[in-house]
Amino acid sequence: MGKHDNFIRNETLFGIVPLIKGDRKYGFWDCFLVTSGFAIATWCYEQGAYSAGLVNFQQLIITIFGIGFFFMLLEMLPLWFSTRYGIDLWIWLRAALGKNGVAVMAFLCPVLNFGWYAVTADLFRDSLVQLFGVFGVTIPEVIVPFLGVICVILGVVIALGGPDVIKWASRIMVTALLVVGIIVLFICFSVSPSDITAVQPDLSDYESPIQAFAYSNEGMVAFCFSWSTQAYVLPRLCNSERSAYWSTSAAYGLIAPFFVFLGGVMALAMYAAVGEYTSDPTVMLATLVGPGVSLLALIMVAFANIGTMGNGLYVNDMVIKSAMPKVSYKALVIIMAILISGLTIWGGVSENFGAFISIAAYLQGPINGIILVDCFILRKRKLSLKSAFLLPGHDAYKYPGGVNIIGAISVIVGLICGLMVYNPMTGVIYSDIFYVTTGSGFTLLTGGLCYLILTMTPWGKKYSLRDRDDLEIV
Amino acid sequence: MSTEEMDFEAELEAEVSKRLAIMQEPGYEFPTRMKKIDWIVAGVIMVISIAIVEFATLSTGVM
User: Fold this and answer.
1) pLDDT tens-place string over residues A425-438
2) Does the N-terminal or the C-terminal CB of chain A have fewer CB atoms within 10 Å?
3) How far is B16 from chain A (nearest CA, A)?
4) Nearest residue, CB atoms, B46 vs list A74, A385, A472
C-alpha cells in the first residue's frame, strides 16, 4: 500500500474512531483560525453580491449578521458531543437515522453541496476571462464554459495528491483568500460610505420589498445550513466544549458572514462607482481597482478557487467515506469531479444561485432539526457510544433495513413542508410562513417537530429509545 | 467482501473498542463542559438576532 493509500486509510479510520484525551490539541484560537480558513471561500463574495441585489444597506447588515448569528449559534449547539466523545455528527445520527440512513444522507449532503463548488469553478472561469481581458485577449464564447473544468482538474490533482499537496494547497488558498479580502476591504473604503448606503436595489422583478428581503434571508439561511453537516469534524480535536462551540460559531457565524458582507459592499460600491450592478466578484475586482491590483486580485482569486476545489473534494469525499468506508476514495473524487464539471459546463448554478443553495439546504434543514431534538430533548445529551459504533452486543441503533423509519419520515416531512411554503426551483412562494421562517428554516422546524412527535409516541419510544439502559459512557 | 475490506473493518472495530475502553476507565478526563453562562449568552444572542431579523421583516412589510 502506497504512502497516499495509507494516508486515506488512516484519515478514514481516524475520521470514524472516537478521539480521546491525548488527541485533543486545539484550543479556541487553533480551531477558530483553521475553521475560518475553511469558511472564507470565494463564494462568500457571490453570496454577498446576491443579497446586495435584493436589499438596501441596512437590510444587508441585518440579513447577513442577524441570520448568521442566529442559525450558526443554533446549529452548533450539539457540537459539545463532538468534543466530549470525539465523534463526528454522522456517528450520533446513527441513532436518529440508522446506519444505512446515515450512509444515504452522508452521501446526498456533500453531493448537493457540490453546487457551491460549481460556483467556485465558475469564479475561476470568470477570473481567467477577466485576466485575459486585462491583456486585451478575448476568449471565444465556445471555449469559456470549459475553462471552469481546468479548476476541477487541478482540484482533483490536489485531492489525489496526498497529505503534502493538500497541506500546501491549503496554505496557498488561505493566503490567496486573505490577499483578496484585503483588496476587497480596500475597495470598500475607497468608495464614499454615503454613496454605498444610498444604493437602493432594483426590485422591478419582485412583488414587494418584503419578498426580496425574504429571498435574501432564505439565501443566508441556506448559506448557514451548508456548513452544518461538515462542521463537527474539527471540534473533535478541541480540549474543551466551550472553545469548540465558540470558535466554530465565530468562524461560521461571524467571519464567513463578514466576508459575505464585504462581497455585498463591493457589489454596492460597483453600482455607486459605475452605475452598473453585477453579482460577479471578478468583474467587480477588474472594474473597481487599477490594472496592477486587478491583475494580482484575479490571480489570487484563481489560486484560491483551485485550493478551495481541492480541499472541498477532499473534505466532502472524506465525509462520504466516513459513512461508507468501503467505497474507493479515488473513485469518489473522480465521480464528484465529473458532477462538478457537468454543472460548470452547464453554467446554470451561478445563474440560479438562490435556487441551488436552497435545494441543498432543504435536505440539511430537517437533519439540523432532528439532531437538535434528538440530542437535547429525546436522548438528553446521552448516547450509547457502543451502539453508535455498532459493537457486538450493543444493538440499540440497529433498525430493520438499517434505517430509523422515524428519522426517514421526518426528513421527508421537513422537505415536503418546506416545498409547501416555498419552491426553491421555481422561486414561487406559497405561504406567508416563508416571510417569517424562510423555506429552509421551515424544513428545520417541521423536520425536528415531526421527529419529536413520532418518537414520543409509545411505539416511537420502544422503537427509537432502546438505548436508555446501554449508557455506559456518559 | 475482499480481504482488505475485512482487515479495515477488523482494524476499525479493534481501535474503537480500545478507545471506548479508555473512555470507560474510572477517572478518565473528559473535556471541560460548557458552562451555564455559555448557554445563556448563546441564547441571548440568538433571541436578539432573530428578533432584529423579524422586526426588519415586519418593517419591510409595512413599508
Assistant:
1) 888 999 999 999 99
2) N
3) 5
4) A74
Residues of chain A positioned with their CB less than 8 A from the CB of B15: 13, 17
| DSSP sequence for A306-372 | HHHHHHHHHHHHHHHHHH-TTS-HHHHHHHHHHHHHHHHHHTHHHHTHHHHHHHHHHHHHHHHHHHH
Q: Which residues of B touch A72 (CB under 8 A)?
A: none
Name the burial class of residue A248, with classes exposed (0-12), middle (13-18) and buried (19+) by CB atoms within 10 angstroms of its CB.
buried
pLDDT at A177 over 50: yes
B15 in contact with A at a CB cutoff of 8 Å? Answer: yes
C-alpha cell at A346: 452547464
The highest-level CATH class for domain A19-467 is mainly alpha
Which range scores top for mean pLDDT: A174-178, A248-252, A317-321? A248-252
CB pairs under 8 A between A and B: 118
**What's the complex ipTM?**
0.90
Distance between CA atoms of residues A300 and A176, nearest Å: 5
Contacts of A7 (CB under 8 A, 6+ apart): A162, A163
**CB proximity A80 to B under 8 Å:** yes
Around Cβ A3, how many Cβ atoms within 10 Å? 9
For the packed helices A144-159 and A99-134, what is the interaxial angle rounded to 10 degrees?
130
Domain ranges of chain A: 19-467
